[in-house]
Amino acid sequence: xxxxxxxxxxxxxxxxxxxxxxxxxxxxxxxxxxxxxxxxxxxxxxxxxxxxxxxxxxxxxxxxxxxxxxxxxxxxxxxxxxxxxxxxxxxxxxxxxxxxxxxxxxxxxxxxxxxxxxxxxxxxxxxxxxxxxxxxxxxxxxxxxxxxxxxxxxxxxxxxxxxxxxxxxxxxxxxxxxxxxxxxxxxxxxxxxxxxxxxxxxxxxxxxxxxxxxxxxxxxxxxxxxxxxx
Length: 230
Hints:
- The structure is a single chain.
- The protein has nine helices and six strands; from the N terminus they run βαβαβαβαααβαβαα.
- The protein has helices spanning 21-24, 43-51, 65-76, 96-112, 114-126, 135-148, 182-191, 207-210, 212-224; strands at residues 7-10, 32-33, 58-63, 81-87, 169-174, 196-200.
- It has 230 residues and is an alpha/beta fold.
- Strands 2-1-3-4-5-6 form a six-stranded parallel sheet, with helices on both faces.
- Helix 2 crosses helix 3 (65-76) and helix 4 packs across helix 5.
- The chain folds into two domains: 7-93 and 153-224, Alpha/Beta hydrolase fold, catalytic domain (Rossmann fold, 3-Layer(aba) Sandwich); 96-148, no CATH class.
């Protein structure tokens, strides 16, 4: 029996493989690859760089910035991606005002320390109300941000390309998602034929670490779905 295709996991800004660890611990063992999202200034360039290093065919899941890059990857090489999961992310373009805000945030974080900037300035946007007081989660996000650093990558509008996606797709987000609201995920799911939309209660942007049991159950079903979507 052939082993399942590798699972490529793209982390978000300020994140590394630790953001996926709670979910992976709850899944059946399989080859998982978590590349670093470095070395490019735009999502299309990042996608091209990653495609040059990854196996010929793989399942692909992207969280936040990783989801944005994942959409570029399936647009550039649809024949290589067997299934796609978009987690707490967006297909919308990057307005110039948002780009300016993010560049200013990078400069401010460099001044006061990335982990301090994240845990003090951004924490309320990252998690649900129930998780805001969870020091373990706060320490995890702070540690990842300190290790990875903060940068800004330009993104394009992936919405016109969504109907062309023809693999099993999971669109998942926290019900209390503030950075990429639920309606953006509903928009993606409605434009992709057969996409499964999962909105996770008591979770915000970091649904992966806030509700790993629930997220893992959805990911397991996605990984087991037939490769030809309905």
